[in-house]
Amino acid sequence: MKKIVFCVLIGVVCAVSQNAADAATRLKDIAHIQGVRENQLYGYGLVVGLNGTGDRQSSFPTLQSVGNMLRRLGMHVSPAEVSNKLRTRNIAAVMVTATLPAMARPGAQIDVTVSSIGDANSLEGGVLLQTPLQGADGNVYAVAQGPVSTGISTAGNTRGAPVTVARVPEGALVERAVPSTVVNQNKLSIVLRNPDFTTAARIIREINAQFSQPVASSQDGGMVEVRIPPEYKNNLVGFISFLETLSVEPDFRAKVIVNERTGTIVAGKDVKISTVAVSHGDISVQVNVQKDVTESTGGSRYGEAGRTSTLSSSKTIAGRGMAEMELVEESVSIHDLVKALNALGVAPEDLIAILQAIKNAGALHAALEFI
Q: Under 8 Å CB-to-CB from 116, ≥6 apart: which residues?
């Protein structure tokens, strides 16, 4: 029987015994500077030189585009001549898309993706004609042109095989840089990729700890404002580089991700299950929790208050057709439950049903999301 795949979220502590420093990551990996971002570009173009796999004669956009192109090149053709005499099987109308990297300057080369919008069978072997790429503001930021690559060799592809999406590696030249403002009133803003109040507070503490005066502050959990210190007034690049390399331990909301198609379950270390009895068909689960000792933990390096906690050892027993179940009196890890059920060869759909029931009972202290 297929086993349940259990994973631990990347970016959180995989073992409870690890300390906070082991979970710290660079600031640049969990946030970015406001004003430094990618931009999406798009354009309409033609791919020519196809081996009879282009758009059919009934494709009006392709006919009109070819006619307009020929007239711009000085060839006087009427719409009737284009419709009656022009054959388009070697031509395909396409949409061209690209991502303009942050801080890209004129002359830089970027990859583009070419996608057929007509009824072409294949773009293999074609060449993209010069295509202006514009942003959401309507301005042209790059121009694309070049041979398309489908990733399929001519020998390995039969004529008529549907290959309607291709790429032009480094096929676009950047013609205009996107204007951006990084510093506003001697401040720059750090935007968290996963907004969280705890993470924002830790970032503020870590940055302020590096200077003799408080330079970082925030009004919410999504952005941290940093005032540029006098010593970095003429060295903005060095200041941003310094901030990006600071180590911060990000905090995450407890979450369980379930993929019903593959039977994969991904959960973080902080996902806990409270008092609950589980019974699903002939499957029963018994969890014994025994209190051991009580210890006091000190505050973290971020200045967070310490707390007194009771260490407990848990033992999870799972079986089929068990007559009795014991209520769980303390929070236990979802890993214990999954491990026990996995040992029985429980089908993924059974485990998913059990997790849903625990969540509905209010005993699963995490968000349960299905993908």
A: 47, 55, 92, 93, 94, 123, 164, 165
